[in-house]
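hey m, so remember when u said the tokens were messed up on ur end? i reran from scratch. heres the input so u can diff it against urs
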Amino acid sequence: MKQKLFNKDIAPHCAICKHGKLTPDGTEVICPKKGIVAADFLCGKYAYDVLKRTPRRMSFEELSDDTFNL
């Protein structure tokens, strides 16, 4: 099994695979291996692409004024 180098909570799916490309509407993926598939589809050729994942937004409610002081 491949070693996971990134967050283990990221669910693998074709929308963040290095082989696939999202369609303009974002609901399907054009995959050179499997053709047109759903964005949440997963096949055996899945390879995680860091740059395709949209990171969660940071909650600024957790920060205090002391965080920004030098």
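this time it looks ok to me. The two ends are 45 Å apart (CA to CA). if urs says something different then somethings off w ur setup not the seq
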